[in-house]
Design a protein that fits this description.
single chain, about 170 residues, alpha+beta, four-stranded antiparallel sheet, two-stranded antiparallel sheet, 5 helices, binds iron/sulfur cluster
Length: about 170
């Protein structure tokens, strides 16, 4: 069994060693170069696709829908700083920061909301994606613009109708 050090001896050792811890929070915290902290979402880039929501293990990101809007909500109080959302965002709207301090007197400080207008199908009034997501899809894929304002179901039907029309020369079979 190791011999117990006397207080006086401990004091001598401590004074020789000097300060071995950081004066945090008075000094900058000591972080490794790979440290991951909370995220920031650029509301001008976000298209409201929800990919980050699906990738987020603790549900710190959620998509909330009401009649006219889709809201991406980030609650930093649940965030585990894994940055999976950074990896999956198709438009690079999420950036990882090195900030990790969450203390606040007001819990609303821990929430970020990105509000999107919901796209409505002009045929059935059903709900589709966000308006920004539709524009993104048009830019990225050869979707015919006349189907743009239709929900996925009506778009599928319109496409099938147009194929049938082309094959039959506009005459119903
Ligand atoms: S860093 Fe991880 S836990 Fe935090 S919001 Fe992104 S995916 Fe969710
Ligand atoms: S665009 Fe990026 S930040 Fe916006 S919902 Fe999709 S994955 Fe999340």
């Amino acid at each position: 069994m190791s011999e117990k050090l006397k207080p006086a001896k401990l004091l001598v050792i401590a004074s020789k060693a000097g300060r071995v811890t950081k004066r945090y929070p008075y000094d900058e915290p000591l972080l490794s170069p790979d440290f991951r902290g909370k995220i920031t979402i650029d509301e001008n880039l976000c298209i409201g696709c929800g990919a980050c929501v699906n990738a987020c293990p603790p549900n710190a990101l959620q998509l909330m829908k009401d009649k006219d809007t889709v809201v991406l909500r980030y609650f930093v109080g649940r965030c585990i700083f894994c940055w999976r959302c950074v990896d999956v965002c198709p438009v690079g709207a999420i950036k990882g920061l090195r900030e990790f301090e969450l203390a606040t007197n007001d819990i609303s400080d821990l929430y970020v909301h990105v509000v999107h207008k919901k796209a409505k199908c002009e045929k059935c009034e059903g709900e589709g994606a966000t308006q920004r997501m539709l524009y993104y899809v048009v830019q990225k894929s050869p979707i015919v613009e006349e189907y743009l304002n239709e929900c996925p179901d009506c778009r599928r039907k319109s496409f099938i109708d147009s194929v049938v029309k082309r094959r039959t020369g506009g005459v119903s079979e």
